[in-house]
Amino acid sequence: MFIPLSFKDVINRFVDNLVDHYGDTLRALSESVLSGVLLPLESALRALPPWLVLLAMGLLGWHATRRLRQGVLLAGLLYLIGCLGLWDPLMQTFALMLVAMTLTVLLGVPAGILMARYEGVRRVLQPLLDIMQTLPTFVYLIPVLMLFGLGKVPAIFATVVYALPPLIRLTDLGIRQVDHDVAEAAWSFGPTRLQLLLGVQLPLALPSIMAGINQSIMMALSMVVIASMIGARGLGEDVLIGIQTLDFGRGLQAGAAIVILAIVLDRIGQGYGGRRVPPCR
User: Fold this and answer.
1) pLDDT tens-digit profile of 191-231?
2) pLDDT 10s digits, 119-141
3) Is 219 a domain residue?
4) Which structural domain, as residue segments, surrounds residue 15?
5) DSSP assignments along 237-262, one per residue
6) Which tens digits make up the pLDDT trace of 38-55?
7) Residues 132, 162 contacting (CB under 8 angstroms)
8) 260 in Cβ contact with 61 (< 8 Å)
9) Among 213, 216, 223, 237, CA closest to 136
10) Contact criterion met (CB below 8 Å) for 115 and 215
11) What parts of the sequence cross the membrane (predicted)?
């Protein structure tokens, strides 16, 4: 009744061929990211005194929201994670988030700019972004496991792929929503396309871009527990151990710490994203 149809063999041959030809390169890339970026950053964060981290996050929260009470509250929430005995896993998760979000911004903002500039790029990326946003999260682990194996680096790459779509879409949307009259007025002064982009379009699109970064941070945090299944340590590992050992208290405690971290980062992101760009004179 049904016509046999399967593409798994094609995919498997493609991945096997990729590993055979580029396996050494991929392993070198993984090792360079791990030993050159992630581990030094993680060691630096874990070596910092907690009071200094709390002070820095409190100041960042105050700078983002322009409310001293909000900065104190955010620092207090992070202090609560330390009181739960999860400060060290928090720093591990924070290091992974910093690396993943740096890569996400470096890839997502230029991709969103290209989508806004070129209709052909938009037609190609639009269906890819639809697929990336509808695939189950566990599916992201399959290709990174095949190419990079277990560890923190594949967890970073899986997180980046999962967190990219909202940033690309909102960067594209922000640039497209820049007032055409403003762009035309700026264009009349004779700037290059790059000058127009950097001096007019990106500043006016910044609230939308910041909203995209905020959304990407939330999606990256949702991958923390899943990424722990392939070797990423941190708060997600405690949740996973709690599930495996039926230690519900440990799992819920680590889950609460992830929620607190999400609240802190969300408030900071909303604070920067909600700022209005001063009108052009």
Assistant:
1) 777 777 777 778 888 888 888 888 888 888 888 777 777 77
2) 888 898 888 888 887 877 777 77
3) yes
4) 9-273
5) HHHHHHHHTT-HHHHHHHHHHHHHHH
6) 888 888 888 889 999 999
7) yes
8) no
9) 223
10) no
11) 47-64, 71-87, 93-116, 137-165
- Measured between its terminal Cα atoms, the distance across the chain in Å is 70
- Is residue 174 packed enough to be buried (19+ CB in 10 Å), middle (13-18) or exposed (0-12)? buried
Contact in structure between 218 and 266 (CB atoms under 8 Å): yes
Question: What predicted TM-score, i.e. pTM, was given to this entire model?
Answer: 0.83
Q: Which two tokens stand for residue 237?
A: 């590992």
Domain count, the chain: 1
**Is 74 part of a structural domain of the chain?**
yes
H or E, element range at 102: helix 87-117
- Whether residue 230 is contained in a domain is answered as yes
User: Would you say the C-alpha torsion 136, 138, 144, 145 has a positive or negative sign?
Assistant: negative
Residue with tokens 């993984």: 30
Is 2 among the domain residues?
A: no
Question: Rounded to an integer, what distance in angstroms lies between the CA atom of residue 277 and that of residue 275?
Answer: 7
* 8 Å CB contact between 246 and 200: no
User: What's the CATH number where 135 sits?
Assistant: 1.10.3720.10
How far is Cα 167 from Cα 172, in angstroms, rounded to an integer?
A: 8
Find out whether 208 and 271 touch, Cβ atoms under 8 Å: no
Angle at 29 between CA 154 and CA 155, to 5 degrees: 10
Mean pLDDT along residues 269-279: 63
Q: Are 27 and 77 in contact (CB under 8 A)?
A: no
Contacts for 210 with CB less than 8 Å, ≥ 6 apart:
269, 272, 273
